[in-house]
Amino acid sequence: MLAATAGTSDQEVVFSEDDIIVSKTDLKGKIIYANDTFCDVSGYSVDELIGKPHNIIRHPDMPRCIFKFMWDTLGCGEEIFAYVKNSCRDGRFYWVLAYVTPSLDINGKVCGYHSSRRSPNRRVLPKLEEIYAALRKTEQQASTPKEGMEQAGKQFEQMLADQKMTYNQFLFSLEQM
Ligand SMILES: Cc1cc2nc3c(=O)[nH]c(=O)nc-3n(C[C@H](O)[C@H](O)[C@H](O)COP(=O)(O)O)c2cc1C
What is the residue with the minimal CA distance to atom 23 of ligand 1? Predict the structure, then answer.
């Protein structure tokens, strides 16, 4: 299933188009379920994942503003697609296209979140890496992480406005490249 071998930070783990990486979290993003594919790709055992915050697999190249946008969207009760670069236990990385949704209890109240991830379209990645790197640069140059996240968030909004696109149209446009 996996197409990479040894483990350094510049090595990517590529997983099959047929695989779906699944996790569920509580309201705070603590992992309450991880499927076997999640464990296989990330290199963590299920025991190492359950009860941990989802940022256990956070990759430093990921802009904070993208996660803020994700949490804000989920906070409005909406679903979101996002390209995410994750870290493996051994330092390698893997890209996913995540579909994250709120989970509802029997009264229709949000009780947690669910993420299903597929292998991304490889053609999307160079452009996406370029955009994420620009956002990360803005975040790193700011005087505080909070300010950086806000500035990068505005930069991202401006980029979408310049291209007259919503976030979903932007994702779709990447797929057309
Ligand atoms: C259902 C769900 C799935 C998530 N999946 C990931 C993920 O695959 N990788 C990741 O870095 N963060 C993921 N997050 C977001 C993390 O909770 C966290 O916001 C992010 O890693 C940024 O962490 P930080 O605020 O400590 O920088 C997920 C959150 C939820 C609710």
Answer: 55
